[in-house]
Amino acid sequence: MNSNRKRNLPITPSTSPLKKPKDDPDSDDSFENFVINVSPRSRSGKIELEDSFDKPITQKVEIKKKESGIPGFPWIGIDNRVRLEVVKSENIEGTLHVECKNGSIVYLQDQWSETKIEGGDILNLIDPKKWAEDDYIIDSEQGVLIVNPDVLVPCTSTASSTWCSRKQILNDRFKFGNSSNKAMLLGTIIHEIFQSALMIKKRPIKEEDLLEIWKKESKNYIQELIALSFTPNCFNAEIQPYLPIICDWINKKLPKASFFEKPSPLPSKSIISEVHDIEDNIWEPLLGMKGKVDVTIRTKSGTMESIELKTGKSSGSTEHMAQVLMYSMMLSSKYDQKIGFGNLLYLKDGESRSVSPRAQELIAIIQQRNGLAKYLENSFQNLLPEPRSESRFCDKCDHKMMCSFYQKNEEKFGLTKNEKMREFAEQEMAHLKKEHFDYVSRWIKWILAEWKSENDRNNFQIKDLWLTTVDQRKERGTCVAQLYVENCFKNIITFSPKIEISTTTTTKNATEFRNGDICVISTEKQLAIGIAAITKIHEKSGKIELSFDKPLKIGSGPYYLDKYTSYSNFSTILGNLTYFMGNDEIGKMLRNTLVDLIPPEIPKIGELSQNVRKIIGKAKLNNEQRLAVINALVMENYLIVEGLPGSGKTTLISILIQCLIATGKTVLLAAFTHSAVDNILTKLTNDIEDDKILRLGNLSSIGENIRKVALMTKMQNVNNDYGEVKKILKNTPVVACTCHHVPRELLFSYRKFDFVIVDEASMVLEPLILPVLATSRKFVLVGDCKQLTPLVLSKKAKTEGAEISTMQKLQNSHPKIGFCPKIVVSLTSQYRMNSEISKLSSKLFYENRLICGNELVSRSCLARNGEYTVKTKKNEGYLNRALSPNLEDSCVFIDTECEKNESMKCEDFEKGGCLNKGEAVIIEELYRNLLENGIKPDEIGIMSAYRRQVDYIQQHYNLPIEVNTIDSYQGREKRVIIWTITWTNNSSKKSELLRDERRVNVALTRGKQKLIIIGCRKSCDEIPILYELNKLIEEKNGFVKIEI
């Protein structure tokens, strides 16, 4: 920046343009409550351009630019925008001076001078005044400022923040509550009836037609109605008052096209030509806004207008008007038109209003949006806007507990300006002790740190959609381009690549995505027409099937699919803390157990029922398993089952559930992964009737053999009949799902259980288990704390204790009880690995406690199976030992000697991860020989600690066997396991994944008869746990070297 440039900033008082005189006829319908007050200090004089350096700039011939149609407000377009990054800002005599990275200075005056701007912020200047060569002015006369435009603030949040900004940020950061709300449900249903009726060609439309729509759609709301104790017929009474109003509006505004019937105009004086879109999804990075327009219409004049539906009575709500005005701005940008009218339609009384945009109100809305963006930009920052100035309505707020917690504990009432608000917060928090505050504060800090770590390592950010090119995103593997709609059936869209694109290129591009991935669908002209889930990828043809809620025209395109990473899981986990804070019996139980660490009551074992004895006897349990089942049946609070690898945890849980059902108890079965839930149910369905089991979750996440007991399947089987579905939801004794699913499932808002059983409990982050434990007064935790713990990315959170699971905490906190088999039961007899494989884990991790359950398991090996025949020749080097069927060769380490063999060294990647192509070549050769020798594909498992290595093997060798990460293999087993170490010491990475002893333990305990490790021994010796492993393998002469 040139220091000799002259900038005179005289202060000359001027009248604020924000408020019109009282006698202005146009001021009656404005909503001044929304306009942000501007202090007299900020109404500074304008920058006067006095020197000769500046004058030529002002004398340039102006190029005629597009007009927005709103006096005092600019055209919203990319060619009318300047994007800058802030270095620092300073308010000097009422003008905010913003220094930017490129050397520019932005001067913000009048109402813009109070904008909060910090170093690192991104600014969009829309139609600013140009001063000198690189500087800009925005004031009440010209220009609009968008702070951090890459943060797309929902229109509903901006509109609602006029009442309470703090609530909007809390709502974004803390998602909680799985209950249904009558008013919200009614609003959703009325919206859908109205929108569906718009698309019906029949005119005039009658109330019977609307009831027919409701009859069809009611099946989609069965669960919500059951949660509210409403039948569809009862809900008809709630819907009925809206029907004549809907019919009247549609018949008048959209009559049958004929010479005799003319449509009546909207309050904006516009005539509807057609309904252009329903739930029109708009992401507008120029304005930093996003929203869904209820109905987008094309008028006779050719412009687009929004219709926002409200199911309440008509009101002069500033929130409603602000929402419509934001839609007007976004429609202007999306459809390249002037900012036009919007419409509000109140379906309770039929009142329809036009919302006319004016500069004063549009600027106020943008400033309100800018204020929210500062908090939403980095959701992992532990900051909130200040509370409301009075607490009169706070008692009904969903976020009153967390809001009060922040006021008292995090902010120390520094932002609370009203004594009654302070009293309210104190009262809300009166039941909590200091230790409880510390617990919540600690977990909020840890989860936000995890959120940031996940965000930092993510290969794709939403802003990349408009800040990078398609080719850049394709190169990164986060975008599939040039797709056309081949088929559209119900809600499944099949995209096919353009014929000219080669199959090889398409397949490589498409396989960067996986089934279940969420993606953003865009076109060349429109960003983000919607978000969809991938249901199937056809690797050979490059076709991709998605579940999408809007029909797309067959043959249309091209479309672009970009990976979408949702961070909503973190908001849900944060919201789970409200269970712990609750001033009720559930909250008290959680606090007593997890923080106060009140010891559980020691149960007294009484006489077991005949049915239970029969089940236990038939199961042929060992002594440890039998003890665990009996103690679980009689416990008062909780039981911990420490199950070592292969010790029959799944069998134990299945038998325990059978016993509980036999005694008339209800059970919630939860686990960290879908596979763990399905493994237990696979055993359980062999012994009890399907109608006693209910599996919750998306069908795509549930194993095919278990889908018969899934909720969606059962609802389809009874044709979504209300009474039958109600029985299924309320009376099924065993309900099963993942821990992640519990806080999102309506069923848990009205059902409690006699027992909760949590498998993989040692893997579950503590806040994630809170809503699970909240469903019952008794719980059983099953797991192994020497296997994988909760995954924690943040190093700081990890070192401070975030990876300590509830199971481990309770074991460590009650050492005296730990010796009591009635509270903690260990299962040490394993039925998976032969003795040679089992000894590795037993010696390294379990003080030799892990033993084979019987002689058959101990001596199991490939040689004892007649189907396996070694066909390799004697001179085929390492393959002879690697493929040996003998018991003593059950564990073989193939030493790649990367210090000698360059091709066996790993590759590092800038974005993280590790890849070893040399080891992948060995894997392919081993796989081929194992198949020739008689091993079936589904009996072989390939694992690596590194996702990049897994992806490489999957994509380049396309083997019909499971290739996965070590973490994904927990709880699984294969007859033969091939473990590719991948990392070598030429890498700049610290090999942290391999330094985790628990992960190594999992890797060593997945193979039943054969464990083949591929890696560089010398490199592995640098990792303490692998060095100890190598010593054990050396004792058995288990090393073989490759020959290059």
UniProtKB/TrEMBL annotation:
Gene3D superfamilies: 3.90.320.10, P-loop containing nucleotide triphosphate hydrolases. Residues 804-1017 form the DNA2/NAM7 helicase-like C-terminal domain. It catalyses: ATP + H2O = ADP + phosphate + H(+). Keywords: 4Fe-4S, ATP-binding, DNA damage, DNA repair, DNA replication, DNA-binding, Helicase, Hydrolase, Iron, Iron-sulfur, Metal-binding, Multifunctional enzyme, Nuclease, Nucleotide-binding, Nucleus. Its EC number is 3.6.4.12. Residues 102-298 form the DNA replication factor Dna2 N-terminal domain. Residues 1-32 are annotated as: Disordered. The keyword NAD does not apply. It is an enzyme of class 3 (hydrolase). One of its GO terms (molecular function) is ATP binding. One of its GO terms (cellular component) is nucleus. Signal peptide: none annotated. InterPro entries: Coronavir_polyprotein_1ab (IPR050534), DNA2/NAM7-like_C (IPR041679), DNA2/NAM7_AAA_11 (IPR041677), DNA_replication_fac_Dna2_N (IPR014808), P-loop_NTPase (IPR027417), PDDEXK-like_dom_sf (IPR011604), SF1_C_Upf1 (IPR047187). It comes from the Eukaryota. GO terms for biological process: DNA repair; DNA replication. Coiled coil: none annotated. It is found in: Nucleus. Residues 620-717, 723-795 form the DNA2/NAM7 helicase helicase domain. Belongs to the DNA2/NAM7 helicase family. This is DNA helicase. It comes from Caenorhabditis angaria.
